[in-house]
Task: structure prediction
Amino acid sequence: AIFTHTIDDNDNAVEAGRMGVLLDIQAAMRAFSDSASLQVMACTAVRSVVSKNYLNTAQAYQLGLLANVQAAMRAHTGSMIVQEESCTVISAFTFGGINRADIVRLGLLANVRAAMRLDLKALELQGKACETICNMYLDVDTKVDAEMLGALADVRAAMRTHRDSVELQLVACE
Result:
């Protein structure tokens, strides 16, 4: 209901943030950390609430929701959809006024890279991970960290694996 209510509706997303739904989502993620399907839907809901809304992004950051996303990535390494949705949440945070260097410091870029290495042939995952890495590069302060982690090598591997995907090539070249 949260995702459906807030997707592409900033007014509803603002109201959802005011109502405290992020805290409820976080509680669900913690209570059902072993459920991949719950983690996917929770990530989708978080992304919907924080996308294009700096106040909600700041609230989610203060709650430590990125740590919950990271925990989901680590707990469900075999689930491509958990990895994909986690990448989209991290990407949403990079546009939400959160210092990208903080995201790198938390180790999330390393988690994105680990997700990429799970299955080079998973086009959706590679695309979302490349987009997240590209978003990290928008901040000069994180360029050195991203390069040190070898993120460009992972982007190159995705490009070589998916030579026939214009969407992936576009995101990777961005």
Residues 2-173 form one domain. The chain has a mean pLDDT of 86. The chain has one domain: 2-173. Residues 94 and 100 are 6 Å apart (CA to CA).
